DUF983 domain-containing protein (Sphingomonas molluscorum), 127 residues
Amino acid sequence: MTGPAGTPPEPLAAATGGLCPRCGAKTLFAGFIAFAPCCANCGLDFLQFNVGDGPTVFLTMGIGTLVTVLAVVVELLFSPPTWLHVVLWLPLTLGGVAVSLRFTKALLLALEYRNAAREARLTRDEP
């Protein structure tokens, strides 16, 4: 799945397919949203990347806002029973966060790899 002449896949392609950002093998995930420790094909250590909880927070807030607005609109237009709200919005929220979280985590890891992003280091000139 690597690009022309063995180039790494583009970050969007790597995120969509769960591909290793170095070799393009489909080895990025060990579970639905859990990264594998390393690429079984090229040995790239996925644990060195710091994706963190940022995607979880933003996706939960964004999808939560969208679902809340939709729930209010449905309530005002149709006044459905409470159980129907639960049946509609709970799976939509959980599914939306889970599916988009997989993509977003993979995209951030691929972008960190492509840009060689690392934690900031402070250096001081000693007198």
